[in-house]
Fold this protein.
Amino acid sequence: MTEEFHDKARRLLDEHARDLDAATLSRLHQARNQALRQHRPFGISWLTGRYFAGSAIAACLALVTVYFYQVQPPPLPSIFEDPIQQETAENIELLDDLEFMAWLVIEEDVPIAAATSS
Amino acid sequence: MGVETGVHADYLDLLAAGYTSAEWHTREGCVRQEQQERVRDRLNQFLSEVERSAFRMAEIAVRNPDDALDIVQDTMIKLVEKYAHKPESEWRPLFYSILRSKITDFHRRGTRTRKLFRWLSEDEQETELAAEAVNSGPAEEFARELTLERLISGLQQVSERQQQAFMLRTWQGFNVAETAKIMQCTQGSVKTHLSRATEALLRFVTETPDQEGS
């Protein structure tokens, strides 16, 4: 007895499922598309995953190493009170011009000599 | 797991054959893209097959088409997000397991809301069809008297578990073991729920006047 009842119930529910209005079908279609947009690559191979993870870690370590252990030339001691002379002294190219350096020294002494003589 | 093991072995074989790691990743990337597209197409086809019956099942359970649509969409999203990697043969029981869970969550939220505001309104006692023994009559008579309206009304009167057991076993065609897994209960419970649902529905069909006035 129950078999006939179940069979009839199944047919009625199948017909009920087929009989959907266009608006509901459209919304179901949208829901399905929305769900499929959530599909992400699954089962990324352990090798690929570890490859990228290892590369990222290595890159970070390299950046940290470069940042903390980058060799900086020690600053020259401030031996000149005049900042222009100090900057000139730090300029390697100008250091090669000894005549220019000698002129600077003379020019520095001239005002002192003029001041002492007067 | 099986896919990953195969990929690992494939990688080692190609390395042994002289391929570089970059060549392997390029080849692997193309293969995976094709696999993903195939899975997506299969998912689309599967969801298009089950969406109508899932909607009707949810609608009968929650009695509201908008809520039913939300439940079906949430079910689809969860299946695609969490279980797309499972074998295709498992998609259907997984889908209905998620659907059943979403419906149960919906009812629980409604129960909490009703309990919270019960002091504001009269208590609504939900009557449940008594699964009393029905005098056996001609099977054809029961089948003849069964209309869609009566069936839906009867299903909405039985308990949630009885309704789920009837829908999954009778309509969706899951066997007892599959139904037990979906409903997260024992096989004995499934049989009991189905038996009581059937008795209650038969009683409802025979005792409820036909709304169409036949």
